[in-house]
Amino acid sequence: MEKIIEANKTETGVQVIFLSGLQPVSEHFSIETLKDMHIHPLDLLEYPRHYAISTSDRRVVPLFEHPLRKG
């Protein structure tokens, strides 16, 4: 798993940037794809370093449990 270091809004979703070794890598996720992964796009845009990307199955995963979504 690689930590996301930046996230930018696009017309169709969110472009995330993470480091693979020392090289920055960019990956695009549509809004629908993020919702299917139970990732709120605005949270990802505001707090990209709270997320990582699983490169083996191309999924965004939270590193921390969201305090307002407990329970």
Mean pLDDT: 91
* Helicity level: 10-25%
How many β strands by DSSP? 5
Distance between the termini: 26 Å
The domain tally reads 1
Largest sheet: 5 strands, antiparallel
Radius of gyration: 11 Å
Range of strand content: over 45%
Counted by DSSP, the helix tally is 2
Q: Can you write the helix and strand succession as a string?
A: EEEHHEE
Strand order of the largest sheet: 3-2-1-4-5
Q: Can you tell me the overall shape?
A: globular
Uncertain runs: none
Global structural class: alpha+beta
Give the key terms.
five-stranded antiparallel sheet; 71 residues; 2 helices; 17% helix; alpha+beta; globular
Structure description:
The protein has 71 residues and is α+β, with helices and mostly antiparallel strands. The protein has one domain (2-69). Helix content is 17%, strand content 45%. A 5-stranded antiparallel sheet has the order 3-2-1-4-5. The radius of gyration is 11 Å and the shape is globular. The model has no long low-confidence stretch (mean pLDDT 91).
